[in-house]
Amino acid sequence: MDERLSGLRRAASAAGTRDRSGRSGSDFAELSRRVNGAGLLKRRPWYYTARFILVGALFVGGWTAFVLIGDSWWQILVAAFLAVVFTQMGLLAHDLAHRQIFRTRRPSAILGRVVGNLGIGMGYGWWMDKHTRHHANPNHEDLDPDVAPDALVWSDGQAQRSRGVPRLLGRWQAYLFFPLLTLEGMNLHVASVRALFRPSLKQRWIEAALLFAHFALYIGVLLLVLSPLKALVFLAVNQGLFGIYLGCVFAPNHKGMPTLTREDELDFLRKQVLTSRNVRGGRFVDAVLGGLNYQIEHHLFPSMATPNLRRAQPIVRDYCAELGVPYQQTGMIDSYAQALRHLHRVGAPIRNGLRSPAPSGTGRPDSPGSKDTGTKTA
Description:
With 378 residues, the protein is an all-alpha fold. Helix content is 65%, strand content 1%.
């Protein structure tokens, strides 16, 4: 069992006792009062209007350049440019799914399907369901689909129980991580199509129509303008870089942080904070990562508008310091290094030939060094 996580459980239990004896409401309720009092839960319509106009102009400009350049190898640059635009559109779909832009579900879903399904070929309904389950139980080995051992393993226990593809790749998964991200864009398309066959998916026919309209328009315009070889290269570059960029946005947030099992009973605040990592870097990193570098604040307040996350960060960090809750924050390069070291470490049981059908403990993050500008590191 992870001694560090056991210590966190004891701290959570002590905090619960303190709350019941000396404070009205939970720790999160108090934090929510402070954040709401600072006006940070208000919508930011003008910010999102400007962001949609900018990303929309880049999208139209990219495809206009594609048509004007014609059958040329310079289209590789357009493919790379559109990969960046597609990722930024994916981030807008993310914000729509969290109702950061609209308060109600209907306009969020309508625009989300236009941006996600029609714009970039990512099923909005499928992704929202998957992402909602992730937010409810981040880094939970049984409940978070983002740490399911489908291709890679995320904990010692998963490594020892692995079979098939995860066991084949897990041996050297840290070295394979970024190459595998080149397939993430195509994986999103495949998963979106597979989700159409689930009866539980809402508005399936609308999702399907918009999704296949994207595929038809995307492939059609490539074959109309480019030779077959250039079209294939364009598709590979565009989708490969799209997957890498998208993976690089989400990978620093939780990879290498503690994974949880059914044995772990943490309150909402600790469950979100202890499994998340913030990434420093200023306004440029904010734009590149779509504000998700404030992952702790985003997980605590998922409907908070992106520009408010930066302002909420010192409030959350200082409050965690009051509670003695570790608050993890590091630079962008180090966040990837921590994730890769963690992947290599949890792959050790596979390299050593260990197998175990029994449930195992959680995976530990890399050594909790002093990479934090807040309170303690996690």
